[in-house]
Design goal:
Elements: E1 3-5, H1 8-16, E2 23-26, E3 43-45, H2 53-65, E4 71-73, H3 75-81, E5 85-87, H4 92-109, E6 116-118, E7 124-128, H5 135-146, E8 150-156, E9 163-170, E10 174-176, H6 185-198, E11 205-211, E12 214-217, H7 221-229, E13 234-239, H8 249-252, H9 260-277, H10 287-290, H11 293-304, H12 310-320, H13 328-358, H14 366-374, H15 387-399, H16 408-415
Helix pairs in contact: 6-7, 9-11, 11-12, 11-13, 13-14, 13-15
Amino acid sequence: MKIVSLLPAATEIVSALGLLDCLVGRSHECDFPEEVLELPPLTRSRLDTSLPSETLDREVRRIVEQRLPIYFLDDERLAALRPDVPESPWPAHRRRHRAARRLAARRAGAGGARRRSTIRNGMSYGRHPDEDPPKKVRELLEQVASDGGTVLAAYREPVGDAWQAFVLLPIDRVAPTPYQRDLSPTHAKRLQEVVRKVGRFVDPVVVVSPRPGTYWTPNGHHRLTVLQKLKAKVVPAILVPEPEVAFQILALNTEKAHNLKERSLEVIRMYRGLAEDEPRKGEQDYVFEFEAAHLVTLGLLYEQNKRFAGGAFAPILRRVDKFLEGSFAKTLPQREERAEKVRAVDIALAEAVAGLAKRGIRHPFVKNYVLARTTPLTKQRKTLPSFDQTFTKLRANIEVLDVAKVRYEDVQRSAVYAAPAGD
């Protein structure tokens, strides 16, 4: 007899019954008795359980809101073990449903033709696995057809088992999200030359639909621009039913590596969009999407000055700038106050740099050097001061810096240990 247990309590019961030799698989949480650790784990968690409890709670809530599974089951490994007794924490009817769906999918993959579905205008599309998509997805596919697009297939993606669709959309219906970075003409031109040389377009963009007739791509600004310049009429796209994916821009955008300025501007654009669309929520609800608190503050600074030396200030901001409590309506003014404090320090920094320039000290690392020389955040500190205390003290230190005592070789030597601020 072969037994698979996907519940720690069930594993202990199997052991107590003296049937441990019959156990052939376990969940990732089963760890007692120690002998079971040698068995293959058949599940894994979407969550990083090492996160702080508060962050973990927010991540669970976000996953539940998106109707995504918290745990994944390795169906192929489970099928290969061929257990006689699968002990699962899921209700029996769900297990039977999932097993039937997986079996049908495997049979279809073994040689049977994929079944197709039809939407109201008579357009048919492939689907995988062999089951009807949820009502919400079917309505979205109807919308695509109504918007003049073509639905090619609906399928469950292989990581989270969530439904997506492969579609062809009229090019005038697709636009980049309002929150992402500005277009790089150089990158777009280079990409256009490559696509023209290859003679085909092979990289679909990801899109979401915030409303009927409109499709936003969070990761395809450059590819969309290339298709427009090449006079294409349609955009091949992977349509994700959940519009909130558009806010996960930094994780999705892999066309071109983001520099600090691009990341910061994307974050502040997301921030403003969310403040308008989700006024009751706040920074704590979008920790994953914003990535780091200091990017919000830097975004405000870059909005006013595209040449702001964010790279010089980032090491300090990263240590003292934290996500704020409260709704966006409350935290946005606080963010603007923080940006003003940094801007005041930048003005003092510019005066110090100008004083050094008069003495002939010009170096790409000079701003970083002055900040490193005057920062109140020394490595010896066991506790960090607050944001306000840090930048008030930093400004005061810069204003009293005696530039006459700074030597060029000091700046040059410091540059060996850190990169210059390229932003």
